[in-house]
Amino acid sequence: MADCLSLLRQYNVQKKEIIERDNLIIFDQLAWPKHVKTNYLVFKGAKESGPKDYYMLESLLFLLKNVALSHPLYIQRANTQKIPSVKLPDRKALLAYLNGETEASSSIDKSVPLEMAIATPAPKRHRDNTPDAMKKAKLESKQILEEKQRLAAKLSAPKEGGAITDQIRSLSEAMSVEKIAAIKAKRLAKKRQTIKLDNDPNADQRSFMDSELDLTRDVIKKERHHKTRTNVLLSSGKVCE
After folding, report:
1. Mean of per-residue pLDDT scores for the chain
2. What percent of the chain has pLDDT over 70?
């Protein structure tokens, strides 16, 4: 599997895009953390001692991006962005290797273990905090709130054509107990007549006669006798001459 230094050289020679995102340096489907160590040795003078040190991937990529600057200006910019810079004695040979001018370098340590690459993760969705985006989000939330309020008003409103309970009175308030009992008795009588009609072949004629008789009785009950001079002078048990 390719190491990060070899891929950096390959992408630089072929002019392929190298992406920096979420503290990663991405080569298409492979990615490494910015601070990962390569196997390119850092130059040490004769008086310098200590263990071997290696350049970070971020430092080499920053050098390629600022290769047009003079070394003092490059050092100044690297310090401003807090990126470890490449030392001047390593600059020429390192650039020759990364630009494809040389196939190898004596500063590359092939014995050191290298960190494995990871699969390139999907980009994170960052919240847009610009004034226009915040204004749009505020407007959308206001519209959603208005829609909710409108829907709640529709659900709480009485349905058209529905019964208005405030205007409905109970049957006992509108009619007396005697009238309710009379209606119940009449309905029961009609039910009994209906049952008899189903079993009696002459039920149609009898039903007509019964209904006429009931109507006549109702008329007689409602009939009122008006008093006249003649019936006022008449009294039971006495004869007026």
Report:
1. 80
2. 66
- Are 109 and 52 in contact, with CB atoms under 8 Å apart? yes
Q: What backbone phi and psi angles, to 5 degrees, belong to 197?
A: -65, -30
Q: Provide the token pair at 175.
A: 């009619």
Q: Band the pLDDT of 135: cuts 50, 70, 90.
A: low
Query: Exposed e or buried b for every residue in 46-61, given b needs 16+ CB within 10 A?
Result: eeeeeeeebbbbbbbb
CB-based contact 119:26 (threshold 8 Å): no
Q: What percent of the chain has pLDDT over 90?
A: 46
User: What whole-number distance in Å separates Cα of residue 218 and Cα of residue 77?
Assistant: 115
40 CB contacts (<8 Å, ≥6 apart)? 5, 54, 55, 60, 90, 94, 105, 107, 108, 109
Paired sense of beta strands 118-119 and 54-56, if any: unpaired
Chain centre to alpha carbon of residue 19: 33
